[in-house]
Design brief:
213 residues; alpha+beta; two-stranded antiparallel sheet; 6 helices
């Protein structure tokens, strides 16, 4: 792909040069009035193009932050086997829900970065983990492993033991980590990000918060 782009760049520049030359030749011999009229039309055309561009950008933003029809509702336990439910979403404007597994290298590798990010997030944003490979609150082995990973990563944010309420969500997860963004109504915002891509998580959050201003 990189080779293709290097080949395309000079070709594209050559085409632009030819088009520019053609435009200059076409203008030769025209009257001042004709040139003025064309200039006015060009300005109007540029304004229309800018308007369409802004409209397209707004449409793209709307699509990027599209909200799901259904809310994610659940009751479950955290790693300390304390009750937790979907009311946690109402506490913040946006919740970053990181679905991860104790067997997953990339998940574990990004955990220190997530832990640091959680401590410097804006007041209206929070991160919550969902440990996909814990098989209920009686799965002490994986609960202990998840706790150890969090401790080694200096992670202090809440992690959830999946209950049956998470089956619809987890059935759509093709791999971990997968990160969802949930608004205060418990609805999924935009598309999940698959893979350990913390910079992308941060960009999504920053751009979403701008829409709330």
């Amino acid at each position: 792909m990189l080779f293709f782009r290097k080949w395309m760049l000079p070709a594209a520049l050559a085409v632009l040069t030819l088009l520019s030359a053609c435009g200059n030749s076409a203008g030769a011999g025209k009257t001042t009035e004709e040139t003025k009229t064309e200039g006015t039309s060009a300005v109007a055309g540029e304004a229309a193009t800018e308007k369409e561009g802004a409209k397209a950008e707004n449409t793209a933003n709307d699509s990027q932050f599209a909200v799901s029809d259904d809310s994610l509702t659940f009751t479950a336990k955290n790693l300390d086997k304390e009750d937790i439910d979907s009311s946690i979403f109402a506490d913040k404007d946006l919740t970053v829900l990181n679905v991860w597994g104790t067997f997953c290298g990339p998940c574990i590798n990004e955990m220190p970065e997530l832990a640091a990010w959680a401590k410097e997030m804006p007041e209206n944003v929070q991160i919550v983990g969902l440990v996909a490979d814990i098989s209920g609150e009686s799965d002490d082995e994986h609960i202990a492993l998840a706790k150890k990973i969090m401790e080694q990563s200096s992670g202090e944010f809440t992690n959830i033991i999946p209950s049956v309420d998470f089956v619809p969500l987890l059935s759509n997860v093709v791999g971990v980590p997968t990160t969802y963004f949930i608004n205060k109504d418990g609805k999924i915002v935009g598309k999940p990000i698959v893979g350990a891509q913390v910079p992308k998580y941060k960009t999504f959050v920053e751009e979403y918060l701008k829409t709330l201003e």
